[in-house]
Specification:
Length: 262
């Protein structure tokens, strides 16, 4: 029997999740159908419940519903609790389960490039939900220090306050976006600058050895500057594939190889 999956969001047309999950299914022999669902901004809960009532097995959640999905779940994974956002839903024993696979997707993508996260110093630009979702998996992968830079320093400080007990093995610090300096193994852009076309100016006082742009499919001043410095860099397509693989394996009990889809 064909298993039914979906991705829900608003807007949703841009989502590449169906093509990824169908590609994973072809590779692993899983019989599934995966569709896009455009939910009204005030209709997430009803649309989601209808999908599962009609026999849906699993659902991915994208913007702007990840926080609503978090609130809807009966059971949450540890990384979902820390992220306070859910991008992967499934029904089990009559309960709605939620996970956040974004951070693990980022870690898998970085590791697939052969970049070493063990004992690393990481600078993350931005203090929004995308940053919150990746800190715990980065700690699990061995990050020694994570510095969060944000235009509004108070927002970065609030995030560190929220998360420091959840990631005891990693030192969390903050810095204002216009005060960037120091040396890092990785700089990760989790701001919306590349989506909005804003320019992120990386000062000469900031030294870094790898650059990861979470967005994909857009030109990025962040990546342009990394390339000008001849620093190894990439956009977020690997993270997109990695988070999808993680969701696919939760639902289907089989894990495709990331390198086969990059």
């Amino acid at each position: 029997m064909t298993k039914q999956f979906a991705v829900i969001g608003n807007p949703i047309e841009q989502s590449r999740s169906p093509e990824l999950h169908h590609a994973f299914a072809a590779k692993t022999g899983v019989d599934l159908n995966y569709k896009k669902i455009l939910a009204p901004l005030d209709g997430f809960e009803k649309t989601t419940k209808d999908f599962f009532v009609q026999g849906g097995v699993g659902m991915n959640v994208t913007v702007p519903f990840k926080e609503q999905a978090f609130a809807l779940c009966d059971q949450l994974t540890e990384r979902a609790k820390i992220a306070k956002a859910v991008n992967t839903l499934w029904m089990q024993d009559g309960k709605l389960f939620g996970d956040n696979t974004d951070g693990q997707g980022l870690v898998a993508a970085i590791q697939a490039l052969g970049w070493n996260l063990a004992n690393s110093r990481i600078l993350i630009l931005g203090a929004g939900g995308a940053t919150r979702g990746v800190i715990y998996p980065l700690m699990q992968a061995g990050a020694k220090q994570i510095v969060i830079a944000n235009r509004t320093l108070a927002r970065a400080e609030q995030l560190v306050d929220d998360l420091k007990t959840a990631v005891p093995e990693t030192e969390l610090q903050t810095i204002a976006l216009d005060q960037l300096s120091g040396e890092f193994d990785f700089v990760i852009n989790a701001t919306s600058a590349s989506l909005t076309g804003d320019v992120l100016q990386l000062p000469e006082t900031l030294v870094f050895h790898h650059a990861y742009e979470m967005a994909y499919g857009k030109s990025s001043s962040f990546l342009d500057q990394a390339q000008a410095r001849q620093v190894p860099s990439t956009d977020g397509f690997g993270m997109l594939v990695g988070q999808a693989i993680e969701a696919f394996s939760i639902w289907n009990g089989v894990k495709p190889e990331l390198k086969d889809f990059l």
